[in-house]
Design goal:
The protein is an alpha/beta fold. It is about 45% helix and about 10% strand. It is built from 13 helices and six strands. It has a six-stranded mixed sheet with strand order 3-2-1-4-5-6, with helices on both faces. Helix 2 runs parallel beside helix 5 and helix 12 packs antiparallel against helix 13. The protein is globular.
Length: about 270
């Protein structure tokens, strides 16, 4: 079987701004939710059987306690933020397994789910659907891959090495050195992507750098690595068969009425 793990928060953003582009700035109340549900149904129509969606139930996580400038919900448009929880509820009604994260982030859930699923010998491949570079650290050979829908690429371990210049396991170190503006930490001054890759390939993880390489910035580098390293210990499920989609629940009809999109119900019942 192939297990598909979807970044629900990213999908909501993608649908929200994609629809705005075509609606000339007029936002539908649940437009992004409907778009995300149709996207999931399209995956199922084309053969996906085992699906899990991770969401940021709240934006802040334990990382905000470690670094005060770590990303928050500040700046997210109210019309988009108002669709976070409806997406979770609608997906559940549609019969899709959802992991709404509070202390951890959606990325941690994806990493944890990939760890659990890849440990099952029945699983042929795990596909993580997100362009987020953090998730590149979860890629393992051709078995756990990252699907970048926006870039239309499937990134295996060789693809990660080609893009970043380091092995997937060193992505947290790489991000710690170069920084991640999306997550709100700056990296180490004077170290860009090329230099970071060279140092990591020469010395290995930051912990094994000679003291003179980062000097007084070593502790900061290790802190940023903690921010970049995804947790894989979230107890999301025990058996991959828990992720099998078995059709919509009885509550989905009411949700499609609320969303104003009866085609969702018709589409879900055809499979």
């Amino acid at each position: 079987m192939i297990v598909h793990l979807i970044d629900g928060t990213y999908e909501l953003f993608r649908q929200f701004y994609g629809r705005r582009h075509f609606s000339k700035g007029k936002d539908e109340r649940f437009g992004a939710v409907s778009g995300a549900l149709h996207s999931l149904l399209e995956m199922i129509e084309t053969g996906a059987t085992h699906v899990g969606v991770a969401t940021d139930h709240v934006i802040e996580s334990f990382r905000n306690d470690l670094w005060p400038d770590y990303k928050t919900g500040e700046g997210i448009e109210p019309a988009l933020l108002a669709q976070f929880h409806p997406l979770e509820e609608a997906l559940t009604a549609m019969g899709v397994v959802v992991w709404p994260m509070i202390e951890l982030e959606a990325d941690d859930a994806l990493a944890s789910a990939a760890q659990i699923a890849s440990g099952d010998e029945r699983v042929e491949k795990v596909c993580i659907w997100t362009p987020d570079k953090d998730l590149a650290q979860c890629v393992r050979g051709d078995r756990v891959v990252q699907v970048d829908r926006k870039g239309k690429t499937i990134r295996n371990a060789a693809g990660v090495r080609e893009k970043f210049g380091v092995e997937p396991e060193l992505i947290p170190d790489f991000l710690a050195l170069v920084g991640d503006t999306a997550d709100g930490y700056p990296g180490i001054a004077g170290i860009g992507a090329v230099t970071a890759a060279r140092l990591l390939n020469q010395y290995g993880a930051i912990e094994t750098f000679p003291p003179t390489v980062l000097g007084e910035q070593r502790d900061r580098g290790l802190l940023f690595k903690t921010l970049a390293r995804l947790r894989t210990d979230a107890p999301l499920f025990h058996d991959v068969d828990e992720l099998r989609w078995r059709g919509p629940t009885d509550a989905f009809a009411a949700w499609t009425d609320r969303l104003g999109d009866p085609r969702l119900l018709e589409r879900s019942r055809k499979m």
